[in-house]
User: Fold this.
Amino acid sequence: MSVADGAQRREIVLARRHADLTPEQLWTRYFALGGSRDLVEVEAYLDGLVGLPRHQCDLLAHAVNECLDEIAWTRRAPYSRALRPRRPHDDSLAALVHLLEGAELAPPERLPRLIEAAGRLIGIGLSAYLADYAQQFLHPVSAAADPGPPLPIDSTLAGRAFRSLEMLPADSAGRPCLWVPLVDGAERIGVLRADVADDDTLEDPGLRAQCRWTALLVGHLVVLMTQYGDGLDAVRRRRDRTIPGELIWSLLPPLTAGVDGFVVTGVLEPRHAVAGDAFDYSLSDTTAVLFIVDAVGHDLRSGHIAAIALATHRSARRAGYGLFEQARQIDETIGAAFGNASFATAVLAEIDLATGRMRYINAGHPEPLLMRGGKVVKQLTDGRRAALGLGSGELVVGEERLQPDDWLVLYTDGITEARNSEGEFFGEARLADFLRREASTGYPPPETVRRLIQAVLAHHDGSLQDDATVLLARWTNPHDIDPKR
Assistant:
């Protein structure tokens, strides 16, 4: 046994005594970690009678140290080599680890307390505000009995941070703070409020990085926890959903997602009572697949048709089938399930993300719009076929070549056919004019579709008679993306 080995053995023996472990208890822990020597050999090693391989000695040290962690002793038995720390020493990493570990088996209602505790680890006050599903207010989520009033998205600095996806400093009632966008990937969830000690701290780049990392993790946790509990969903849901609305919302993908230079975002209205409209997409390293559907009717039956269309599309897409077969299977499934009196209009599109080449099928649906240079340059009129459920007929695939920064806009007729009190349609011209004006604002795609739905609702005096859905995609040539961004 070398001098170094003897020193390690002595420290293990001292640590074992401090931990008040019997040889049998130490061996049990050691064996659970993967130790391969029997109790007699371990006891002989502790008595200095035999040596053990370094790996086995390290397992014994680890077994002792685990017990010492439980009783919070500061002295540790040494290892034969340098090991990575089990806990991060950096405050920002400690905050992220606290969030991850705290959320592992936590109900959604516990997340506000975890956020506040993470803030204390980096020396700031942290609280979250979640956007309601109508995207009109940011609602506080807090462990406090009275978390405070909601903040309007369109008229507050917090709302501006949400709308623009920018981190914004503020001085609220003498309390300097940062409003930090809360996102899950590309999807906007709400904002984090970070209260700091003084105004100078607001510009600290290290603090801003810590807040951004925390917001990214909290955004993921909000989405994850909403999948298995209703506590956070109740904050965001301001009206009860109808049964068709609940059915459709349970099937939708995230409203916004992105990969590299491609972002897709969608919105449905009325969010609490949508019935026959739905959308889906799939993004990979090479391809984006888009699908928007509008089932006939405005009741639970139309919700069933839309749900069947979504499920069939996903099944065919995941089986590797192309647009022809995807459309054929949806058509046959709707016909078999509901008969020839039921159908759904739809657009199926596939975009090559390396070249911008787009192939699409339009099954009786409003023609997609292509925006370039801030204005609508064309309607995509090819690839027409009958609505899904009425028989396939002749199948033709349309093609289009997207250019960098093009926008592709898919929508249902509930957008253009929304009427005001005088019976005037919102119409394609008003839609194109709205998109032209929005393109000049520089807002991210999800803000554009949010504002579009607000404009449609305002035109229709705040209440729609038909579902209105938009799916907007923006493609940027990956070769044109700044790798430093």
Notes: Residues 479-485 have pLDDT under 50 and may be disordered. Residues 205-226 form the longest helix (22 residues). The first strand starts at residue 125 and ends at 131. The two ends are 55 Å apart (CA to CA).
